[in-house]
Amino acid sequence: MLTARSADLPLSSLSSAIAVQEPPSASGRAAAPCAGIPLKAVPYARAKRVLDVVVSVVLLALSSPLLLVIAALVKRTSRGPVFFRQTRAGLGGRHFTLYKFRSMCAEAESLRASLQHLNEVSGPIFKMKRDPRVTRVGAVLRKFSLDELPQLWNVLRGDMSLVGPRPPVPWEVEQYGAWEKGRLAVKPGLTCLWQVGGRSNVGFEHWMELDHAYIDTMTFWGDVKLLLQTVPAVIFARGAH
Asked: Is residue 178 exposed (0-12), middle (13-18) or buried (19+ Cβ within 10 Å)?
């Protein structure tokens, strides 16, 4: 699935792969196709999509040897598929399939309910610093966000953007109020203010505030700045577990 073939696309064909978010209404908001969530009008939507396509193609091509090594390690060290596929809520609450390298045991999803009482964060999310479902290879992948690399494919497909609020799972969205659902007004992303601001060390309410702050002030150069800030955040594994 994730190969360097995308890097062979001629530049002339990239423009045909570019799709912008739905056009805004006269008021600057458009009715969402799902969940009744108003979408954010993004003035630089076309430039944002160009950035998404170009950067994801380049990163997939450059990281292809690393992707193969990670895939082999995941396959050889634990039972189960190499990739973890999960339904997530994207732009306007629409569902899409998110891809990650599997970092947990094959039964992780069915075991979550039995661990719910050990949840260490507030709000409709589940996180544990020492989650027993995480494999040894998975712990390293998660620490340096390497398990997220397959989401470059989601970016290339248009399900996600490089920069935007992290995509929640549907059961989390079901517990959202109207304010929390506002974070679905733009495409979800690989990185955002939450990613560079401490990740799992950030409480749910502050996380939502950061997402709203991004949506309210988003600009093209702001996205570029967040991408650059993500590099040291990932290298030094700030708030990762």
From this structure: exposed
